[in-house]
């Protein structure tokens, strides 16, 4: 009987010892951590209740946060943690919100304003554990303050505030001209662009007229309304006005003339003749010489020159057929044919009367100089 009691007592002690076994650190589920003092413990006594909380950025989606150590084993973890969702950030009047990439914990939103509006506040917000961190910015209409004035200049319209894209025009007073853009625009950042122009005293550069020379008028520096007159060198003709005036924009009005070389087109051709040299264009004072074909004689000026008006001076000559008056008559003889005029190279033949004999050339021909060449023959009496 004593032995039986001893065996029962030992078994009960083993059971009690088995039931009181400690637990190691419980394994958390996804996206959760132990809470408070449970974080630092490495062993947990039998019956201990450990508590889990969802990690930063995650929120409880169901299940129990508590697990219990029983005989060295933890009860099943049923807590579920889902990523924190911040939801819609709201709306920004006259602007847009871009979600990068969405609206979960750690995501960002970027706010941009519509054209003509500017951002007031933080451009970016982040989805945090308690929702979107910070306040949504606002988009205010862009306005520009009164632009700066410029020395010796004016601008219009003049007002306290200018709306986005409103334009201001600048101008200069007196003898000053505008350098830069004459208009500036109220831009997105609330400033006028481009940069302000400047008013500089009007001065025209000394005109450069190639192949020309100054005749009269002002000398450098040429101020507003100053006038100058130029002429072209010999052999050049002017294109444009000889006189010009320094304008308000610092430019000569109506423009700087040009001196271009005088050239002549080929002169008129002539019938039965030609001229030389022959070329497409002739320079000022260049001369052409005319000549006639054989059997023709030149009437008029033999040469013409290219003149300042771009034409050859004078009228071209003409080529007339060479003719000869009748040749001299001879004593005791005659010639034939007999006519009022003879053509170039036409011949006459002499003959003597009966009882006379011919001495000299029997025939003469009409030459280029309009006379019969050579001397006429003579008729001598025959001696019996």
UniProtKB/TrEMBL annotation:
Keywords assigned: Disulfide bond, Glycoprotein, Repeat, Signal, Sushi
Domain of life from the UniProt record: Eukaryota
SUPFAM superfamilies linked: Complement control module/SCR domain
Paired cysteines (S-S): 54-81, 172-199, 232-259, 292-319, 352-379
Name of the featured protein: Sushi domain-containing protein
Signal peptide: 1-20
Domain Sushi: 21-83, 84-141, 142-201, 202-261, 262-321, 322-381
């Amino acid at each position: 009987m004593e032995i039986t009691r001893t065996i029962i007592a030992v078994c009960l002690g083993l059971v009690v010892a088995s039931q009181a076994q400690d637990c190691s650190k419980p394994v958390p589920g996804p996206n959760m951590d132990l809470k408070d003092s449970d974080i630092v413990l490495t062993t947990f006594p039998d019956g201990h209740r450990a508590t889990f909380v969802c990690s930063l950025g995650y929120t409880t989606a169901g299940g129990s946060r508590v697990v219990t150590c029983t005989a060295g084993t933890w009860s099943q973890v049923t807590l579920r943690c889902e990523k924190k969702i911040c939801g819609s950030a709201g709306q920004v009047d006259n602007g847009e919100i871009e979600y990068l990439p969405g609206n979960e914990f750690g995501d960002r939103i970027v706010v941009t304003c519509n054209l003509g509006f500017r951002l007031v506040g933080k451009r970016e917000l982040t989805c945090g554990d308690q929702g979107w961190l910070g306040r949504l910015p606002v988009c205010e209409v862009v306005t520009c303050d009164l632009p700066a004035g410029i020395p010796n200049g004016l601008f219009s319209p003049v007002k306290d505030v200018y709306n986005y894209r409103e334009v201001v025009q600048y101008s200069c007073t007196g003898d000053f001209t505008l350098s830069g853009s004459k208009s500036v625009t109220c831009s997105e950042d609330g400033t006028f662009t481009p940069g302000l122009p400047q008013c500089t005293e009007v001065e025209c550069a000394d005109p450069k007229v190639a192949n020309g020379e100054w005749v009269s008028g002002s000398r450098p520096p040429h101020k507003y309304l100053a006038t100058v007159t130029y002429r072209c060198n010999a052999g050049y003709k002017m294109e444009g006005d000889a006189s010009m005036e320094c304008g308000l924009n610092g430019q000569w009005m109506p423009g700087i003339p040009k001196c271009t070389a005088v050239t002549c087109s080929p002169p008129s051709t002539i019938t039965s003749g030609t001229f030389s040299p022959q070329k497409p264009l002739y320079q000022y004072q260049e001369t052409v010489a005319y000549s006639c074909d054989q059997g023709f004689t030149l009437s008029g000026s033999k040469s013409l020159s290219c003149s300042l008006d771009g034409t050859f001076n004078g009228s071209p000559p003409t080529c007339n057929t060479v003719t000869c008056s009748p040749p001299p008559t001879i004593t005791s003889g005659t010639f034939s044919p007999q006519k009022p005029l003879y053509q170039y190279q036409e011949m006459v033949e002499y003959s003597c009367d009966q009882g006379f004999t011919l001495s000299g050339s029997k025939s003469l021909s009409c030459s280029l100089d309009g006379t019969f060449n050579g001397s006429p023959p003579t008729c001598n009496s025959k001696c019996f």
